[in-house]
Amino acid sequence: MAIRTSMSGNEATAYAVRQINPDVMPAFPITPSTEIPQFVSNMIANGEIDTEFIPVESEHSSMSAAIGASAAGARTLTATSSAGLALMWEVVYVAASSRLPIVMAVVNRGLTGPLNINAEHSDSMGARDSGWIQIYAENNQEAYDNMLQAYRIAEHKDVHLPVMICQDGFITSHAVENISLLEDEPVKKFVGEYCPEHYLLNEKEVMAVGPYAVSNYCMEAKKAQAEAMIRSKKVILEVAEEFAAMSGRSYGFFEAYRMEDAEYAAVAIGSVSGTAKDAVDRLREKGVKAGFLKVRVFRPFPGEELAKELRGCKAVAIMDRCESYSGQGGPLGAELTAAMYRAKVTAETVNIVYGLSGRDVRVEDMEKVYGDLREMAEEGKTFKQYPYLGLRE
Amino acid sequence: MFNINMEAKFDFKQIQEREERLAPGHRMCAGCGGTIAVRNVLKALHPGDRAVVGNATGCLEVSTYMYPYTAYEDSYIHSAFENAGATLAGAETAYKALKKRGKIKEEYKFITFGGDGGTYDIGLQSLSGAMERGHDMVYVCYDNGAYMNTGTQRSSATPSFADTTTTPAGKESAGKPQARKDLAAIIAAHNIPYVGQTTFIGNMKDLYVKSEKAIYTQGAAFLNILSPCPRGWRYDPPELMDICKSAVETCYWPLFEVIDGKWILNYEPKKKLPIEDFLKRQGRFKHLFKPENQHYIGAFQEEVDRRWEELRKRCETYGE
């Protein structure tokens, strides 16, 4: 029986953590993810779970301790945001290259400066090439559902990679919305026991982690890691299918909303998706063939699959909640445009930067995006690459 | 408080006959103090006891675990330069969690090694956090007084006036302007149950006894081991033991312990040797013996004397 209630994205994440009851969780507080370690600490204090919490003195130590714990054979969790993830930077790579199935709840927030605490994807996008799987949520429901699927993906024998479960700071993490939770028993069965094959505390063997390797070996190690990332695509879909059988909620690499005959499409990640879907509905009522793609899995990047969805479109707006300072747009723009080029999808594209540092995006803003796409395709109007949505000028 | 029987007496032969837990074939230099520190600390593990060995990036790491070979007989983890404390703290916490859940039966000890770069400087925060939280682990600093792996740059453990590649002695410079940081005292201020400072003396009894105490003390323990580096200090490898002895006899490197807040001086030279005895053996202090630089030796001596007196006072005031 599903439990219908309402809670914030952070509460939903903590609810999933309670059901998973991981072995070890090191964490350091940072807005807006702070509530997650707080909720977990409370659950430990009240005897609801028996996770070992490590109140580390920084996020760098948080990820370092997670590496030590995971290598030692513990199912390990941490949570962070923004500057916290930036401080972990070096060891985020170590976690992935050591092939440790750590799960990190990332509550997305912009990087300084100016110092700001609101939603932006610059933190996790900065770590997009670190070798972590990245799964993004539109709302609290998805933050919860993604969390429950994370260890199944990370610990899979074909994968052995860490996973970031991302949600938008405040918009998702703090806003209280309706949610459908699963009962403990089926969740525990679904997540399963963690039985690592090789680990430091394996009584049957000794193990060494973290070698120095000369050029003769390094490239092969990196290729093996890249192959695991590619293999994770199949696993992500298999786990989603099994999750759908339990929960009735289906997930893939992305959600295609009214895309069947769409001529104009926007592509984005995270909480803006609800707003975009509303705009699509309004436009559809007016007879505009609008559609929307919500990217759920950014690493591995489902470039081919996304491009395929966009084949019939006349114009596409690729939207980044992140500046990359390349002078070309944001990371989703760069990667999706490249994927479309390879797939010979020739729709007009515009890469829009939106919602930086929590800047609000309204349904009207999204309607204007679709309006611009139409002008671009129908009237040959050219737009400068890459516009900022909702910028005060 | 020691949680299991400490070995009653030191039988050098019996200890040295224990199986090496750092296998030969690693790539550390001849005459390197770091290797001696690791071998002897690990020998203090009682035979049959299991351990997880940690390591900060540095000479030791790149020379003892070069893929696909490891020199460690125990499980081993290296993750980065500045996080040996936190990394091993994570492994130790995993042990607690898995033990609690009945997934592990055996006893494990947790010992991590870092050079002074990874310990005094870039890894100080991670070390402080691990010590303050009281993880049941030993952090061992093999202190060779500079960033040797990158080519002898100064660290906060480098003694005054040492000629390093970032404090070179020259026309306008007498080497490192600052005196070394007293890390053992800083860690003692964390009020952990065991802190020991030692080096290689005689038959290694001091090192062995302190290692055993550190490993078998419940809670966080810290060992600071003066570990000469032939490249950075510029001495002939066979002189290593004499240099260590001189460091102790001049009171540059006092042997002491802080056990549950009690300061204990382990050795007091009958006749304290002048600091020249320590300095003259090392190429990094060669410039101090030029006539125009003699006053720096005086300044060095003053600082050694001041610290020695301070330590003696501590041991008198807060001793047993």
Descriptive notes:
The complex is a heterodimer of chains A (393) and B (320). Chain A is 41% helix and 18% strand. Chain A has 393 residues and is α/β, with parallel strands linked by helices. Chain A is globular and about 70 Å long. In chain A, 55% of the residues are buried. In chain B, helix 2 (33-43) crosses helix 8 (205-216) and helix 4 runs parallel beside helix 6 (124-133). In chain B, the strands form 3 sheets. In chain B, strands 4-1-5-6-10-9-11-12 form an 8-stranded mixed sheet, sandwiched between helices. A two-stranded antiparallel sheet of chain B has the order 2-3. Chain B has a single domain (12-158, 181-268), classed as Thiamin diphosphate (ThDP)-binding fold, Pyr/PP domains (Rossmann fold). In chain B, 36% of the residues lie in helices and 16% in strands. By secondary structure, chain B is of the alpha/beta class. Chain B has helices at 12-16, 33-43, 59-64, 84-100, 116-121, 124-133, 183-188, 205-216, 230-234, 240-249, 276-279, 294-317; strands spanning 50-55, 65-66, 69-70, 75-78, 108-115, 138-143, 169-170, 173-174, 194-198, 221-226, 256-259, 262-265. The chains are: A alpha/beta (393), B alpha/beta (320). At the A-B interface, strand 3, helix 3, helix 4 and strand 9 of A face strand 1, strand 2, strand 4, helix 4 and helix 6 of B. Strand 9 (208-209) of chain A pairs parallel with strand 4 (75-78) of chain B, so a sheet runs across the interface.
